[in-house]
Amino acid sequence: MSTTMVALPDIKDDVAFITGAASGIGYALTKELATRGARVIITDIQETTCQTLASELNREAGETVAVAAKVDTTSWDEQVAAYELGKQTFGRVDYFFANAGIVEAMWIPRFEADKFDVETPIEKPNLKTTEINYIGQLNTAALALQVFQRQELNRHGFRGKLVLTSSIYGFFHSVTMPMYCSSKSGILAFTRSTSDLHKGKNITINCICPNATPTNIVPPDFFIAFREQDVLTPLDFVIEQYISVLGASQDNGKAIGVYKRNAWDHPLDTYRREENRASYGLIDDGVAKAFGYWD
Ligand SMILES: NC(=O)c1ccc[n+]([C@@H]2O[C@H](COP(=O)([O-])OP(=O)(O)OC[C@H]3O[C@@H](n4cnc5c(N)ncnc54)[C@H](O)[C@@H]3O)[C@@H](O)[C@H]2O)c1
């Protein structure tokens, strides 16, 4: 478990693409990247905030170090268009941050058996949380991995690095947030699967899994009890975890949990794993053959 960081990697002049950059973690991360000399492609559904931040960073630097684009992460086309703008401006992208996300949207009406009977119309679920927190991040991941495949190695010896934002709910289940929790654990499973597949290909894939961090994901009042009980995770320490896996860092497949000023690489659940591997190892081999991943 680490509470203080060793020296963070040098990322000067590297190029980063960030989703959900108009607020909270994405906003703070964008500013930290720029402070460390990186170039940034700032994207969010809140276009004006992205443009304002880009102008501010460019004014401070006296050159173009930032571009902004409206990107709804559920739109593949908008993500590609923002990447194209970034490539045109900066030549390549070293880091993709799949970060945009929202809190739980209630997905089906709550269970009140006394108010429902077989004649009550069945409602279509609201899958917005899954669409943004899972599909939206996978769109960014699909973009990143295809861009990396087409790029030369950078000065650190990497084609590129993908960092996804999972959550403490990637590890632990939630009684009240089934959509949030399943999306975040999906992102964790995706990180572990694809980082293994891309091992040795000069690509790294990691995810950051913060506990409750004060941002605009919920109204400010929500955090009052957390402050009173001293259980908030500081935003600056969360941002350090994102920076820690960049540059020449060899970290790959990490799921970095963050609670208060503690960060740790969360271990894989290995309960009865070896016994099951006899079978699921064959499944992986079969799929690998079908997809041409290995012989
Ligand atoms: N704050 C926490 O306690 C916490 C803890 C763990 C994980 N996270 C995750 O961190 C990420 C960032 O959240 P935050 O806490 O900074 O919240 P935030 O609300 O402050 O920022 C999220 C940003 O994402 C943007 N966004 C929402 N939907 C979008 C979409 N479809 N396309 C593009 N942008 C979109 C919003 O406009 C906003 O600017 C999320 O994935 C969230 O689940 C947050």
From TrEMBL:
The keyword NADP applies. It comes from the Eukaryota. GO terms for cellular component: cytoplasm. GO terms for molecular function: oxidoreductase activity, acting on the CH-OH group of donors, NAD or NADP as acceptor. Keywords: NADP, Oxidoreductase. The keyword Manganese does not apply. Belongs to the short-chain dehydrogenases/reductases (SDR) family. This is NAD(P)-binding protein.
